[in-house]
Design a protein that fits this description.
728 residues, alpha+beta, eight-stranded antiparallel β-sheet, 32% strand, globular
Length: 728
């Protein structure tokens, strides 16, 4: 009997060994292993021989079929005949599998984005495709792994089949088992907001710090004392940088991570809908990619193109109308409280089509008035900006928020003091575009009812870009900002906009996952805590040194930098917020916070006070042939150099956190044999984000590819450099 047991153990080990599959990155540094353990799919990941992800389970749990409901109109007894065991089996897409087949492939291409950090992007990976059969149910699931030089992407695929057609996801059981108690840069897991400051802590400390990390927001639904959001940045004790995220989020719920802090294992946590379901699927279909970036060099995390490469190629045939945009706007004055979005304070409530705004008494604070807008148009024209954003131009702002109001805006009717045609004609005469604003107040049903009309209005009036917003709790009620229903809405709005040749900058939407490759008219998102919070009490000083490692992994952010007046009380005496940055730091953000959409957020009069510093904002490019990350450490500093598209000019930006930083860079990215003029905008020697944020210096020097620079950054400080070739 003992001999038979040993024989069976040997057969079992052999069986597992046969099933184990391995695939490496093209450079061989990353190794991914896949296997079945007692019918459960598992994987593990290593980098240069170090464990990145320990053995981790894969799969999904489906919602059990309702035995009280009819199967269909022709057969009312089928489901009633299923016993509990059969229901449990049918709910499992996480065990009971056998490997049906495996395939490997190698892929290598170079593609050109419509806009981006680089002119050319290489997409090079080795792939393992594992087809799994589930004999007890007659179902099949495929797991596709792609290993790049900078990380791993994998997803679940559900082929066309008879025994898996329509199904509801109860939970996704993807695990990421960490090899230690890593240092993490995290924000609370939440179904409705990402607008939190980052907390730096050990994984084991998340639970005790969660309560403090959850700060108030207009709509928020935290779900777990150890739940965090992606992209999650971590650093191990032995110097590995690990980033967990997802790519190509389409027709699926946004993924969070729930930590088992006893075992240091993250499990995927999907955003539920109003009735608690996590996703409605119809085969053939697939999940988004789950991604693991890893390197022993933080700069390689920032320079990774893996998220973009896991998305489909561009689906818009004619992209000639998609252009980067540098803009100013009627916005900061409302954020700081100097002006209002609403036209009147006369009514406690308003109804579109009923309230007579023409007869209403103006409140005298409405920012979106014709005369004020013309001042911004003049400023934009004088300084070479592409567009002017105006918020609060359309009727309905008097009771837009917090009322669970369905018909809140119509997106086409202006207030009496905003003359659409006059403003448009004036902007056109100055060579400036107007940027539309669509705040939905999260009444998404209402927005979709009006979307064609709203986009056609834009086309008719000459607007080619829109900033959309989703502030507040969702309508349909009970839905969440990051659930499948809303993910599909955001996608619908972007695709519909492409039909009208409109570029979209969506705020409060789901965090980006690289979809800007497929739909490059998605030129920006907020989806994180941006500059506006500097007027709501301030961001942490290290915030902008973390965002490139987290939020920006999925795509560009409309961070709205460029604030020169740090004391908000000088704008609004009732607001005592302070911008936690130096002026030089604000300049550097135009390079370190990559986006083809960049706003100069402050008032024209503040820029007129510092014309030499403002020159950098005017000069800095939006689109790039090449990007080089020179220095990086999450939470401490980021330094990047970028070559402007179609030129030989470079721009450099460097930002520091609370402790400041001594930056030391080489200009070896410049072309040998050429000489350049570098204009350096840097913190003054006495600069400090709290006490002396407006202390800065501007100096010029000649540089070549052999030049070096040592520059001290103040606490929450920075520097920015424009580099122009000297023509012979």
């Amino acid at each position: 009997m003992k001999r038979l047991s040993l024989f069976l153990v040997g057969i079992n080990l052999l069986f597992h060994q046969v099933e184990a599959q391995q695939v490496a990155s093209p450079d061989g540094n990353i190794q991914m292993k896949f296997a079945l353990e007692s019918g459960t799919p598992v994987y593990e990941l290593s980098y240069k021989g170090k464990q990145v992800v320990k053995t981790s389970k894969l799969g999904l749990e489906l919602k059990k079929e309702n035995t009280d409901a009819p199967a269909d109109f022709d057969d009312f007894d089928t489901k009633a005949n299923l016993n509990d065991l059969e229901l449990t089996q049918k709910a499992s897409l996480y065990n009971g599998f056998e490997v049906a087949s495996t395939k490997t492939a190698t892929f290598d291409e170079t593609w050109q984005p419509v806009w981006g950090e680089s002119k050319n992007i290489r997409n090079h990976y080795n792939e393992l495709e594992v087809t799994l059969d589930q004999p007890a149910t007659g179902r099949q699931m495929l797991i596709r792994f792609r290993v790049f030089n900078d990380g791993l992407g994998f997803r679940y695929e559900f082929p066309q089949q008879n025994n898996l057609t329509y199904f509801i996801i109860k939970d996704e059981r993807t695990e990421f088992a960490m090899a230690g108690d890593h240092t993490a840069f995290w924000i609370p897991g939440d179904y409705d907001t990402q607008e939190y400051d980052y907390t730096k802590s050990k994984l084991s400390e998340i639970r005790e710090l969660m309560h403090k990390a959850i700060t108030p927001n207009t709509s928020q639904t935290p779900f777990s004392p150890t739940g965090v959001q992606t992209a999650l940045m971590m650093k191990t004790n032995d110097g590995l940088y690990i980033n967990l995220h997802e790519a190509a989020l389409i027709n699926y719920s946004c993924m969070h991570l729930d930590l088992d802090d006893k075992r240091m294992v993250f499990q995927s946590h999907l955003t539920p809908d109003a009735v608690g379901d996590k996703g409605y699927m119809q085969a053939p279909c697939h999940s988004p990619w789950r991604t693991v970036l890893v390197s022993d060099d933080a700069r390689q995390i920032l320079s990774s193109d893996m998220t973009l490469n896991l998305n489909d190629p561009c689906k818009i045939e004619d992209t000639s109308w998609i252009k980067p945009v540098k803009y100013v706007g009627v916005w900061w004055e409302m954020i700081t409280g100097k002006s209002s979005w609403a036209y009147t304070d006369e009514y406690p409530t308003v109804q579109l089509g009923v309230t007579d705004f023409a007869s209403a008494k103006p409140n005298g604070k409405h920012g979106a008035n014709t005369a004020n807008v013309k001042k911004y148009i003049d400023f934009a024209a004088e300084h070479g900006f592409d567009a002017v954003l105006v918020e609060g131009w359309n009727v309905g702002w008097e009771d837009w928020f917090g009322k669970s109001k369905d018909y809140v805006f119509d997106f086409v009717t202006p207030y009496p003091d905003f003359k659409v045609d006059e403003i448009q004609a004036y902007a056109k005469s100055k060579g400036v575009k107007m940027m539309m604003h669509h705040e939905t107040s999260s009444s998404v049903r209402n927005y979709e009812r009006h979307l064609d009309q709203a986009y056609q209005f834009m086309v008719d009036k000459g607007y080619n870009s829109v900033k959309s917003g989703y502030v507040g709790n969702m309508i349909p009620r009970g839905e969440h900002h990051y659930g499948q229903w809303l993910v599909n809405h955001y996608q619908f709005a972007v695709e519909k906009a492409a039909d009208y040749k409109i570029m979209v900058n969506a705020h409060e939407a789901v965090r980006p996952t690289g979809l800007c490759r497929t739909y490059p008219n998605l030129i920006g998102n907020e989806s994180a805590r941006g500059t506006e919070y500097e007027a709501f009490g301030g961001n942490n000083p290290n915030h902008v040194t973390i965002l490139p490692f987290t939020r920006l992994i999925g795509g560009p952010m409309d961070y709205t930098p460029g604030v020169f007046e740090m004391e908000i009380s000088k704008i609004n005496p009732d607001n005592h917020s302070h911008v936690n940055a130096t002026l030089a730091n604000q300049l550097a953000l135009y390079v370190t916070m990559y986006s083809p959409l960049q706003m100069a957020a402050d008032f024209p009069e503040h820029y007129n006070r510092f014309p030499d510093a403002f020159q950098f904002i005017k000069d800095v490019a939006l689109d790039w042939d090449e990007s080089r990350y020179l220095e990086a450490e999450p939470g401490d500093y980021v330094t990047v150099a970028r070559k402007a598209k179609g030129t030989n000019n470079w721009f450099v930006g460097s930002v520091a956190g609370e402790n400041g930083y001594l930056s030391q860079i080489s200009f070896d990215f410049l072309e040998p044999g050429k000489t350049y003029t570098a204009t350096i905008y840097a913190d003054g020697k006495d600069a400090h984000y709290k006490t002396n944020p407006q202390s800065y210096t501007v100096r010029k020097m000649k540089v070549t590819h052999k030049s070096k620079l040592k520059q001290q950054l103040a606490p929450a400080g920075g520097y920015a450099i424009s580099i122009v070739e000297i023509e012979k």
